[in-house]
Structures are given as structure tokens and as C-alpha cells.
Amino acid sequence: MSAFRPGGRAERGVALISAMIVVALATVIAATLFFDSAMAARRSASSFSMEQAIQLAQGAEALASYVLEQDDASQDTAREEWTNPYGPVEVAPEVALEALLTDEQAKFNLNTLLYKDGSINEPAMTVFLKLLQLLEMESRWADLLVDWMDPDTNTQNSGGEDSLYASQVPAHRTGNAMLASVSELQQLPGMNRELYLRLSPHVTALPPEANKVNVCMADGLVLDALTAVSTKHAKDTEFSRMTPEALATARARGCFPTTLADSDAEVKKLTSEGTQYFRLRTWVRIGTAQFALYSLMYREADVVRPISRTFGTE
Questions:
Q1: Which of 89, 137, 187, 310 is the most exposed place for a label (fewest CB within 10 A)?
Q2: pLDDT at 129 (0 to 100)
Q3: What pLDDT band is residue 167 in, cutting at 50, 70 and 90?
Q4: Is residue 36 in some structural domain?
């Protein structure tokens, strides 16, 4: 007959609880280690994919440079090889590359609105105001943009300096510098998404020296805006009335319009038939992930090189 031990059941209960606690702690530690290992593996895979995407995008830049170097720089039209999209091409299993070159000087350069000393470039301002009118946008956007870029604290008629932006959320100051990106337009008070998308396809932010628009590639709205400085050309819209299909058909034969730059000296100062700045958009798909790289390509003589890169946004 076994001897009765007081507290025996309690001891067994404590042992059972202790064992359960140990098992729970071991489970938590194992889950944490597994999660950390999985996250480390995921970060490594993402880092590798990003590095692979960058290398492929740089390969696209090299290919674009080669194509542009072989091109006749005296005239850039819609008929040339560089205008054709590249890809999508499967460069490896589950890895695809796609690229597109566009003429960045087919747009109006917003950085030409001011001279180096901060004073307004009146011919450029005339073109921009006409473009705003054609887009059915208020002229005050020109004043706001000038105040955003110029270095002084003098307010344009419908513009605004630091005091205006101090009341914004979050509060900030004006840029007081040339635009680094067209996306800076969204800093202007009241510039909503709809207005930005209306204006942004027709404008660019290049160095101020890029003060000529390539008439062979510009859209109808930009072409009509350029005629605003002309004393000879009809003031009524002409090219913006053409459908995109009609404009493309006219350009299938070469540069169109070739006579715009000859209308008078003022228009000729703002136009050309060649381009130095191109935008390369590169998309890389690796598995289910997609990466986008936007490169600004600069052509000088027979040398083409990227001068800026951005990821995800232009």
C-alpha cells in the first residue's frame, strides 16, 4: 500500500504547467526565428531583384545611346528608328524588359520662363500663356509658377511667395530655383490632379539652355502656342484642330510642319527640327514585381549619356 504524500497532485499540476510554458516559449522562439529568417530571405530577394532591374535598365540606356548616336541629329522626326518601342523582350526566365524613347524637347520647357537674373522671358511667357488658354486653364498659373521659381520676394499679380505657402499643409516655402521635375507643379496652391494631368503632357523641366521646341514632334497644342509670338502667322488655332491620327499621317512623310519656324524671326528663335534631350522609360518585370526607371538622355555631337534617373515617377 503506497504512502499518501500530501501535495502530490499539486506538484504534478505545477510540473504540467511548467512544461506547457516551456513548450509555448519554444514555439514563440521558433516562430520568431522562422519569421526573421523568412523576412531576411525576402529582403535579400527584393534587393537582388532591384539590383537586377537596375542593371537591365542601364543596359536599356546603353542600347538607347547607341541608337541615338547612329541617328542624324540635324532632324528628329516620327519616322526614325529611335521612336519605335522596344519589347517587351524576355531576357531570362520570368524576366522581361520593355523600353520607350520620347522627344523631351517636343514639349514647352518651363525653365525658359525666367532668365538667369530672375527676370521674365517675355516670349516664353507669351507661349506659356497661350498654352494655358488652349488648355482652358487660368493665366494665374503662370504667375504662381514664376513666383515659385524666381529668387526674389516680389509677388506677381496672381502669384504668391513664402507667405502663401506658409499657410499650406504642410507649411513650406517657395522653391526659389528652376524646376527639377514637372511634378513640382503640384506644389502650386489649387493645382489638383485633374489640372496637373491636363498640363503635364505638354510641358517639361529641362535646363534653361534647351529653349527650342522640336516642331517635327510637338503636339498640336504646343505648335499653336508657339505661334502666339508670331507677327505673321494666323492667331487662330490650326494644328490643335488636327486629330492625333491626322497629325501622325502628316508626319509619316517626314518633318511636319516645316514652315512654322519660317513664319518669322521670333518663332524661329523658339523652334528647331532637332533634339538634344530624350526621355527613356524602362520597365523591368521580374516574376510578379515590376520596376520603372525614367532616364533623361542628353545628346551632344555624337555622344549620348544619361544625366538623371528617377524610379517610379518622372
A1: 89
A2: 97
A3: confident
A4: no
Whether the per-residue pLDDT at 15 is higher than 90: the answer is: no
- As a whole number of angstroms, the distance between CA 219 and CA 214 comes to 10
192 found inside a domain: no
Q: What SS3 state is found at 98?
A: strand
Q: Give the three-class secondary structure for 85.
A: coil
Q: Give the structural domain span for 65.
A: 41-104+277-311
- Provide the 8-state DSSP code for 93: T
CA distance 31 to 27: 6
Lookup: cell for 294 = 525614367
Residue that is written with C-alpha cell 519589347 in the block? 87
At 293, give phi and psi (nearest 5°): -125, 130
Q: How far apart are CA 39 and CA 199, in angstroms?
A: 42
Measured distance CA(20)–CA(18) in Å, rounded: 5
228: closest CA among 140, 131, 137, 145?
131
> Any idea what the Cα angle at residue 249 is, between residues 243 and 105, rounded to 5°?
75
Let me know if residue 186 belongs to a domain.
no
Peptide bond into 170 cis (omega under 30): yes
pLDDT above 70 coverage of the chain, percent: 87
H or E stretch covering 285? strand 277-286
Domain count, the chain: 1
Q: Examine residue 246 and state whether it is found in any structural domain, yes or no.
A: no
- Give pLDDT, residue 8: 61
For residue 257, is the peptide bond before it cis, meaning its omega torsion is within 30 degrees of 0?
A: yes
CATH number at residue 302: 3.30.1300.30
* 271-272 vs 213-214, strand pairing mode: parallel
